[in-house]
């Protein structure tokens, strides 16, 4: 049976590069993107089906999750790749800090919505994290959205740490049911993800250091490695990997089971308050 792969952030950067690689393989590819124009272009090029969603709007996430679940009884891989770094703090229409919502809460909700088709075939969740979790992450569970101590880099680091905590939480909660999960750093990639301006990382990405960065094609290849790899063979479920495809150390909070548990619970509580779960 041809595997179904759902890839978010598929309209640009490493997501679009991964989509192009996957289009040469025997997969049923579904891409999700924020830009309608770019998403349609990548879908036309790769033969993928597509959905348009802005992860700063949880109504969009809810809508596409319902559509994807209705269209696909089984999902072999969900690649949570959409994300970014934003100035702020900005509060979305859903009442959450934008970096936290786009990078963590939105994929957290999407994965919850797609658990049934993922579990039906012993599927995989691949989360695009970052070395920023270790460099910039300063997690405070009492300020999980990084509102009290906001800087763009700290909010991004905490959101990427959230991706890793989510990966470990998925493995602990659903590994026995056949679900696998992995988080990885794609490299410091020369893409437009930091293009919203106003941040130190934006100046790095768009400035003189850009020639030192990993290409989107390289980052897309790393993403594809985890999408296509066999859990237990090419990678181990519940782990965080470097762009060298090796298990790597990350923020020390990721190794505290109580932090993993509480972070998951707080995320669920936040979504329940807004009636998303």
TrEMBL record:
InterPro entries in the cross-refs: NAD(P)-bd_dom_sf (IPR036291), SDR_fam (IPR002347)
Tree of life domain: Bacteria
Keyword Oxidoreductase applies: yes
Pfam families hit by this protein: adh_short
Record bears the keyword Oxidoreductase: yes
Swiss-Prot/TrEMBL keywords: Oxidoreductase
Gene3D superfamilies with a match to the protein in the record: NAD(P)-binding Rossmann-like Domain (3.40.50.720)
GO MF term list: oxidoreductase activity
Transmembrane segments annotated in the record for this chain: none
Family: Belongs to the short-chain dehydrogenases/reductases (SDR) family.
Matches recorded under PANTHER family: PHOSPHATIDYLINOSITOL-GLYCAN BIOSYNTHESIS CLASS F PROTEIN, PHOSPHATIDYLINOSITOL-GLYCAN BIOSYNTHESIS CLASS F PROTEIN-RELATED
Entry protein name: Putative oxidoreductase
């Amino acid at each position: 049976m041809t595997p179904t792969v759902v890839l978010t952030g598929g309209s640009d950067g490493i997501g679009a590069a991964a989509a192009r690689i996957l289009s040469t393989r025997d997969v049923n590819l579904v891409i999700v993107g924020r830009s309608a124009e770019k998403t349609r272009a990548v879908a036309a090029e790769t033969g993928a089906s597509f959905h348009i969603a802005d992860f700063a709007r949880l109504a969009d996430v809810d809508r596409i999750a319902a559509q994807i679940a209705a269209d696909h009884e089984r999902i072999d891989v969900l690649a949570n790749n959409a994300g970014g770094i934003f100035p702020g703090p900005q509060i979305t229409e859903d009442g959450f800090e934008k970096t936290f919502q786009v990078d963590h809460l939105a994929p957290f909700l999407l994965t919850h919505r797609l658990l049934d088709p993922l579990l039906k075939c012993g599927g995989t969740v691949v989360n695009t994290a970052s070395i920023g979790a270790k460099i910039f992450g300063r997690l405070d569970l009492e300020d999980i959205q990084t509102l009290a101590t906001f800087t763009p880099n700290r909010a991004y680091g905490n959101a990427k740490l959230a991706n890793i905590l989510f990966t470990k939480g998925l493995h602990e909660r659903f590994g026995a049911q056949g679900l696998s999960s992995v988080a990885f750093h794609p490299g410091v990639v020369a893409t437009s993800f930091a293009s919203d301006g106003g941040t130190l990382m934006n100046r790095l990405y768009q400035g003189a250091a850009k020639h030192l960065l990993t290409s989107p094609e390289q980052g897309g290849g790393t993403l594809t490695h985890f999408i296509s790899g066999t859990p237990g063979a090419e990678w181990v479920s519940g782990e965080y990997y470097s762009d060298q495809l090796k298990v790597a150390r990350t923020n020390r909070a990721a190794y505290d089971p109580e932090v993993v548990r509480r972070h998951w619970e707080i995320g669920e509580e936040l979504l329940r308050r807004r009636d998303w779960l």
